[in-house]
UniProtKB/TrEMBL annotation:
It comes from the Eukaryota. GO terms for molecular function: heme binding; iron ion binding; monooxygenase activity; oxidoreductase activity, acting on paired donors, with incorporation or reduction of molecular oxygen. InterPro entries: Cyt_P450, Cyt_P450_CS, Cyt_P450_E_grp-I, Cyt_P450_sf, Cytochrome_P450_78A. Belongs to the cytochrome P450 family. This is Uncharacterized protein. Its cofactor is heme. It comes from Oryza brachyantha (malo sina). The chain crosses the membrane at residues 29-50. Heme binds at C487. The lineage of its organism: Eukaryota, Viridiplantae, Streptophyta, Embryophyta, Tracheophyta. PROSITE patterns: CYTOCHROME_P450.
Length: 546
């Protein structure tokens, strides 16, 4: 957006150009165009010449003109004129950003430009804390796709304020409180048994070639069913055969996938507003397709809840809770759709992605899996199934989960960035309002100055300090973020992972696929979460007679 200072510079250029162009003669008009073009080019180069690239230069040469020499600027790549370093946010952005920061000696804090948007990325725990805990960074930049998919009315993208606070309070009390997490344990147990049955069927059918895709499918469907149960009160059987799956699961699964693709996409128009009208990447068009389906789907469930007799206390789901809100907390139907849809969306893939990484590491490191099995034998014994209350005693397994969160954080850039709502100092540098701030959690967890031998998979490092928390108090490993906008679903997510992992591990020894071409491949793909690029393929050998 043009600032008054920009306008001032352009008035100067135009008056110069007008002097060249005045009396309608063709050569004068050409002169006018040349002066305009040269002025535009000079402005671009001037802005681009600044550390961090054009968005930073624009800010320094306009808003901070006169006092810019007094303060140091955040180091960072210039990128290209106009677009800055957009490509840093494509592909495996966490790795590209870490490499650029390393090259430029900007590991703690690096500036770069996403088109017209200034951005910073922190790669040190202290700087990460400054950002995540600062009241100036409690908003999020709302992308076009987030608006398009209704998320600006849900917790994740709602501006920090009364509406957001009310939503967080309701969700914390009725979905994520320790009491609620404990109360939903029987539901997780039902789904955990379904997962084991599905994996047995998979092995018996000898579908080894399809096994890889099926592990991922079992995990994703289990997560989706779990969240649909909590949020909508819907219960489904886990079906390996897509044809036998319920229409609702299939529909919602497809909507979640589409939402993931759209939100994970770098939309150039978010940072180059003059591109917005063209919708070159088709973001607006793509968003407009799932939204009516989401509205219809969730709206139907809301209507069914309205017309049903009041649920017994133990059977109350999150839709019932939202419908029961009164007074200033009461939500419009459209907001209710956004909030419910976000919960399903956020709760589905994150948990499945993390479990798939843990299983991959256990297949790859058979010695670690053997230690997990020893612990299960000791704590649970081979004559019964794992229960959720066993989970707290599985100290080594918890160390494995933490080590996987360290090596493969599901949100390496903490998924959703923060937005500076006022000018603010970070690590001694002035960062302007409107800057997008990210934390490169992946860079922190792979930094040899923070974690000795960071590339090694060594769960034992967490056995020395079993009280190490991954919930956001220690920024050396904070996969759920930190501060006011940290993940509200973290306790539920950890309870689910810490119970769903030992359940199949108690039943099976997981071995690599017999097909050498389908060995464990740790390549990543970054969508909204960082997933395994090649789905995990395993052979499961029974270790317990049921
Ligand atoms: C392994 C599982 C999960 C991981 C790694 C994860 C990670 C994250 C991260 C990094 C953030 C941003 C935090 C920040 O800005 O400081 C976040 C936000 C959020 N997460 Fe999670 N999450 C997980 C599971 C869940 C689940 C199960 C739910 C709900 C069912 C959930 C709901 C949310 C919501 C609503 C936000 C936005 C919070 C706000 O802006 O106020 N997450 N999550």
């Amino acid at each position: 957006m043009a600032t008054p200072e920009d306008t001032g510079s352009w008035l100067l250029y135009l008056s110069l150009a007008a002097k060249c162009g005045g009396d309608g003669q063709p050569h004068r008009f050409v002169g006018f165009l040349v002066v305009c073009a040269v002025a535009g080019l000079l402005t671009c180069l001037l802005h681009w010449s600044f550390p961090g690239g054009p968005a930073w230069g624009r800010w320094w040469w306009t808003r901070r003109r006169g006092c810019w020499a007094a303060a140091a600027s955040v180091p960072g790549p210039r990128g290209l004129p106009v677009i800055g370093s957009m490509w840093l946010m494509t592909g495996l952005a966490h790795r590209k950003l870490a490499a650029a920061a390393g090259r430029l000696g900007a590991r703690r804090l690096m500036a770069f430009s996403l088109g017209e948007t200034p951005a910073v990325v922190a790669g040190h725990p202290d700087v990460a804390r400054e950002i995540l805990h600062s009241p100036a960074f409690t908003d999020r930049p709302v992308k076009e796709s987030a608006y398009g998919l209704l998320f600006h009315r849900a917790i994740g993208f709602a501006p920090h304020g009364g509406y957001w606070r009310a939503l967080r309070r309701v969700a914390s009390t009725h979905l994520f409180s320790p009491w609620q997490v404990a109360a939903s344990a029987p539901q997780r147990a039902v789904i955990a048994r379904q997962m084991v049955t599905a994996m047995k069927q998979l092995q018996q059918s000898g579908a080894s070639s399809a096994a890889g895709a099926a592990v991922r499918r079992v995990l994703r469907r289990a997560s989706l069913h779990n969240v649909m149960w909590s949020v909508f009160g819907r219960r489904y059987e886990l079906q390996l055969d897509p044809v036998k799956e319920s229409d609702e699961t299939r529909e919602l699964g497809a909507l979640v996938d589409e939402g993931y693709d759209l939100l994970g996409l770098l939309n150039w128009a978010d940072h180059l507003p003059w591109l917005a009208r063209f919708d070159l990447q088709g973001t607006r068009a793509r968003c407009s397709r799932p939204v009516p389906r989401v509205t219809r789907f969730v709206g139907r469930i809301i209507d069914e809840h309205r017309s049903a007799p009041p649920a017994a206390a133990a059977a109350v789901d999150f839709t019932d809770v939202l419908l029961s809100l009164q007074g200033s907390d009461k939500l419009a139907d459209s907001d209710m759709v956004a909030v419910l849809w976000e919960m399903v969306f956020r709760g589905t893939d994150t948990v499945a992605v993390l479990i798939e990484w843990v299983l991959a590491r256990l297949v790859l490191h058979q010695d670690v899996q053997a230690r997990v099995h020893d612990e299960l034998n000791r704590v649970v014994g081979l004559d019964r199934v794992v229960t959720e209350s066993d989970s707290a005693s599985l100290v080594y397994l918890h160390a494995v989960i933490k080590e996987v969160l360290r090596l493969h954080p599901p949100g390496p850039l903490l998924s959703w960035a923060r937005l500076a709502t006022s000018d603010i100092h970070v690590d001694g540098f002035l960062v302007p309002a409107g800057t997008i701030a990210m934390v490169n959690m992946w860079a922190i967890t792979h930094d040899p100055d923070v974690w000795p031998e960071p590339m090694e998979f060594r769960p034992e490092r967490f056995l020395d300090d079993t009280s190490f928390q991954v919930m956001g108090s220690d920024l050396r490993l904070a996969p759920f973020g930190s501060g006011r906008r940290s993940c509200p679903g973290k306790s539920l997510a950890m309870a689910t992972v810490a119970f769903w992992l030992p359940t199949p591990l108690h039943e099976f020894t997981l071995l690599p696929s017999p097909d050498p071409a389908r060995g464990v491949n740790l390549s990543e793909v970054l969508r909204l979460s960082c997933e395994m690029a090649v789905p995990l393929a395993v052979t499961a050998q029974a270790r317990r007679v049921a």
